[in-house]
Design brief:
Oligomer: homodimer
Number of helices of chain A: 10
Helix content of chain A: 55-70%
Number of domains of chain A: 2
Order of helices and strands of chain A: EHEHHEEHHHHHHH
CATH topology of the largest domain in chain A: Glutathione S-transferase Yfyf (Class Pi), Chain A, domain 2
Radius of gyration of chain A: 18 Å
Strand order of the largest sheet of chain A: 2-1-3-4
CATH architecture of the largest domain in chain A: Up-down Bundle
Strand content of chain A: 5-15%
């Protein structure tokens, strides 16, 4: 099966969570928009193609299936790429964690866009500062602490395996947060030792390591979800 | 199977999407917190119970499984309660729509809490007005228009059936938006005829009709996700 991934060119964005799974598994896939331009997605978004109607990218075409929503794409790919432990309990737990990552990513996005999605960050900077401060005070420690607890827990037959799409997404989350909020993340260091170990392990996986060094890995930038605006980060 | 639903007392919130599915199907369930108080949830959230660790309510206990995240709970219950069409394509499409509803609900929440989750609405009213204006201008028409298109499309074997957990959630979404933004929703009326028809059909289902008239259906209020603050709505 040759998968077709549809996501904006120029940013990692939500598509990157899917891309990491495809890359890690060495799956056969085409990054459609990067090969043909962002317009390649439009006919799907405008309802001109068969199959499910996506609300937004990323979406995956797998044979005749069209699947949107990042967490759902990973739920679909997980068993097919060997990226989720076997057993329905483990699959459900993995998907629960992934949907929680989705929530977290939306909150990261809103740090720089707290008021109006269609306006620039620069047009909502005071609000962004306020929202980011609350995010760094309350939400960042809560979410990272939760994932630390999940890793620490490793509970019996429902535990995640040593490798899953969730691990890949947690790696991406930590990488993005390190880029966006380096000072805040330095301060979190001692409280996230398990996540740090996980991220280091993922970065060393051969396919991921090769991918990260390839031109396919676009650098984080200020058009994406994880943006580095020094004025929003903690003081050094 | 007697399901145990864990969700805050006193509000409909995200738990209501699960409750509607259980009620519509006439499932055997206990609304645990309502019977034993909010504290009944704490031991799960604090990791004192076996199974998956929830990040937040709602979560469902089904035998030994603990399942959090609203959309995922519905993905689990759907086939068991006859609330999703058969076939993997239809199940995936239903879940895609449900995860999109999750995103929409988060945006509805942020209209009254754009900056700091842990502070009161009254402490962030100017920002709430700005965010709500953008929400009513851009996001509400985009999301409702999307679901109108999905219903209109009814595409072949991937179409949703005449009834699913997605329909129940769309009913809840329309009900909540009618409560929160009555003027804005009146203006949307002609652009959402299919959603209106769907919501009317759901309200007439015997189990739903009985539920809505029962004391189990808590009224919408200003502690929940859908809040009515007249100053945030459109002018009449």
């Amino acid at each position: 099966m040759r998968y077709e991934l549809y996501y904006w060119t120029g940013i990692q964005g939500r598509g990157e969570f899917v891309r990491l799974a495809l890359e890690d598994a060495g799956a056969d896939y085409i990054d459609v928009a990067r090969e043909r331009g962002d317009n390649a997605m439009l006919s799907f978004l405008q309802g001109m193609q068969a199959g499910a109607l996506p609300f937004a990218p990323p979406f995956l075409k797998a044979g005749r299936l069209v699947i949107a929503q990042t967490a759902l794409i990973l739920a679909y790919l997980g068993p097919r790429l060997g990226l989720v432990p076997e057993g329905s309990g483990a699959e459900i737990y993995a998907q629960q964690l992934q949907q929680t990552i989705t929530d977290f990513v939306a909150e990261v996005h809103d740090t720089h866009h707290p008021l109006v999605l269609s306006e620039y960050y620069e047009q909502q900077r005071p609000a962004a500062r306020k929202r980011t401060q609350a995010f760094l005070d309350e939400r960042l420690p809560k979410f990272l602490g939760y994932f630390e607890d999940v890793i620490a827990r490793g509970n019996g037959r429902q535990a995640l395996s040593r490798h899953s799409y969730v691990d890949l997404s947690l790696f991406q989350l930590v990488s993005g947060l390190d880029y966006a909020f380096p000072n805040a993340m330095t301060r979190m260091h001692k409280r996230m030792t398990r996540l740090r170990a996980l991220a280091a392990r993922i970065a060393e996986r051969p396919n991921i390591s090769a991918y990260l060094q390839s031109p396919r890995r676009i650098a984080f930038n200020e058009d994406g979800i994880f943006r580095h605006y020094p004025e929003l980060d903690r003081a050094r």
